[in-house]
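MKROS protein
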Amino acid sequence: SFRGYDGNSDLHVGITNTKGVVYNYNEEGVHRAETGWEQCISIPLVQPDMFGLLQQWDKLLEEFSVEETWLPHRYEEHDHNCYTYALAFINSILTAQGKQQMSKSEFTEKFVIPQTKNASKYITLHQELTTKDFYIVTLPDQE
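Predicted structure tokens:
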């Protein structure tokens, strides 16, 4: 659960297909998970107007995931891991669109940090509400 995350350990990363199946990579290779990611932070990557890309997304993700690069014996905890897998897929999409690839730090700063900051605010609020006594007062209607 992200709720207990303290910011000092690594998080596991995956990419979903259009049906919500999470493709993720670890020392056992690429996995396709339909459950177990219910408490994840979702980072939208595809804009709603990118209908053509959405139609191809599942096929591109599956083809990418069966490449030799993602075989279990190639896994390396710090340099060839779930984050490398997700970023490499994103960069393959960007390349196919004729766009510039993103570095790990650029992707982290642009996409990951803003979402984790938002999640952290809600987690802090949740922790405060569950550990302290509180009550809600309804204010009279203002006209």
